[in-house]
């Protein structure tokens, strides 16, 4: 049986053993993890308290002021007294009895503007003595909220017609020219900006086309009359 071949080696085992036997250093402390240990508080030397000062009363040390000299006579004593207040007059009593109390909340004050206007309007109506509301003067104090065509023969105008049929026809033309149907629809639903921009562009193009087409038709019709 063959013996193992001898081998040479270099080792530091003895040094490692010495290091292991040496005292271990303190463990590392990471302040971010919370392993920081608070340092022990060192006793602080207390300063000796100052001796208490005796309480000295300032008023007792101050000398009192001398008394005032007595008056020479009774007349001088009377003149030294302040004059009595003047008696209250009647104007002061009246002013205190009727103070300005427009801003005070204790006095009830109500201003009925509607009642004042209605009374003035009724007085004016009685003075004019006109039973028919159509014959009264038209006071344009509010905005026109509707479109009305009056049926009457006298004083024809943009808001009147002689017969019911003509009044209905005039009302239809008025509604069409003022685009009441489109305005009613646009007020019912919301229209975003993009659709509004497209609608306005379409309306402008249609109006320009209508004006140009009517002008071309009128020109062609006139040329046909002239024999072209």
Automatic annotation (TrEMBL):
Q: Does the keyword Nucleotide-binding apply?
A: no
Location of region: Disordered? 1-102
**Gene Ontology molecular function, alphabetical:** structural constituent of ribosome
Task: Give GO terms for biological process.
Answer: mitochondrial translational initiation
UniProt biased composition (Pro residues): 63-72
Q: Supply one GO CC term from the record.
A: mitochondrial small ribosomal subunit
The record, for Pfam families, names:
Ribosomal_S21 (PF01165)
Q: Which family does it belong to?
A: Belongs to the bacterial ribosomal protein bS21 family.
**Protein name from the UniProt record:** 37S ribosomal protein mrp21
């Amino acid at each position: 049986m063959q013996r193992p071949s001898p081998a040479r080696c270099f080792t530091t085992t003895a040094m490692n053993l010495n290091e292991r036997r040496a005292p271990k250093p303190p463990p590392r402390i990471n302040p971010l993890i919370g392993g920081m240990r608070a340092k022990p508080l060192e006793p602080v030397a207390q300063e000796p308290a100052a001796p208490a000062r005796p309480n000295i009363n300032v008023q007792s040390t101050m000398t009192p002021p001398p008394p005032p000299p007595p008056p020479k006579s009774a007349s001088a004593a009377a003149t030294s007294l302040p004059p009595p207040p003047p008696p209250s007059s009647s104007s002061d009593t009246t002013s205190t009895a009727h103070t300005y109390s427009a801003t005070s909340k204790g006095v009830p004050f109500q201003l009925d503007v509607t009642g004042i206007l209605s009374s003035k309007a009724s007085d004016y109506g009685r003075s004019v003595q006109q039973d028919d509301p159509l014959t009264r003067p038209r006071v344009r104090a509010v905005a026109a909220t509707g479109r009305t065509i009056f049926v009457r023969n006298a004083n024809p105008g943009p808001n009147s017609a002689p017969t019911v049929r003509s009044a209905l026809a005039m009302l239809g033309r008025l509604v069409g020219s003022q685009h009441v149907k489109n305005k009613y629809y646009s007020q019912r639903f919301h229209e975003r900006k993009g659709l509004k921009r497209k609608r306005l562009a379409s309306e402008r193009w249609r109006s320009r086309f209508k004006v140009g087409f009517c002008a071309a038709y009128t020109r062609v019709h006139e040329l046909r009359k002239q024999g072209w």
